[in-house]
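Q: My labmate handed me this sequence with no annotations at all. I'd like to see what the chain might look like in three dimensions before we decide whether it's worth expressing. Could you predict it?
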Amino acid sequence: MSIFKNSSIISYDAINNKPTTTDSLGHGTALASILIAPANKQTVHGVSPKVKLFDVKVLNDKGGGDVDDVINGINWSIKQDVDIINLSFGFQKYDKRLKHAIDKAIENNIVVIASAGNTLGLSTDYPAKYQNVISVSSVDKNLKRDKFAAKGKVDFVVPGVQVPVLTPLGKLETVNGTSFATAYVTGIVSNILSKNPKLERQDVLKILKSTARDLVKMRSMVTG
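A: Here is what I predict for the chain of 224 residues:
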């Protein structure tokens, strides 16, 4: 992630078990730009640009993922004593080993945030579907649900349609999906914890709920 050379980033490739990563797909870079991109000519500015980012690669260059690699990445993150784990991907099937790894993270007071999934309005993906994981879905600028976004176990929705991000070459592009909506919530949680690092996970969740707006009411305000 050379375009973020002035940011604090620690990398780990959970697939190949090595301390460097490459992002041929651009998915991780796009997420990172939402979180930490400094002010730039492309008008992309990170939600939490001063956060220390742990860049953990668990998806292959085609965007596919293996549960074992995800578990490896989660366990590595726990050892690094991270405060937040952002999981911008999903699986359709329940996996007790993945659930165990996530429960272990939560027991260590880590806030786990996951994308609901781009399931064309079908059920929320795992791990967002697990209890105690903050699940995030996406809406457009009119606060309407993204037609590709999941329904079901959804805790929060944020913009996830035509989101401006940076590519690995530093160019601007727009993307859609709950993955990118999730990164916004991760940035918000990061800012909450930066002001009060001693907050417990449940306290963070209470703040998110107290500052969120009711989607139905907000939609009526927009549509008139």
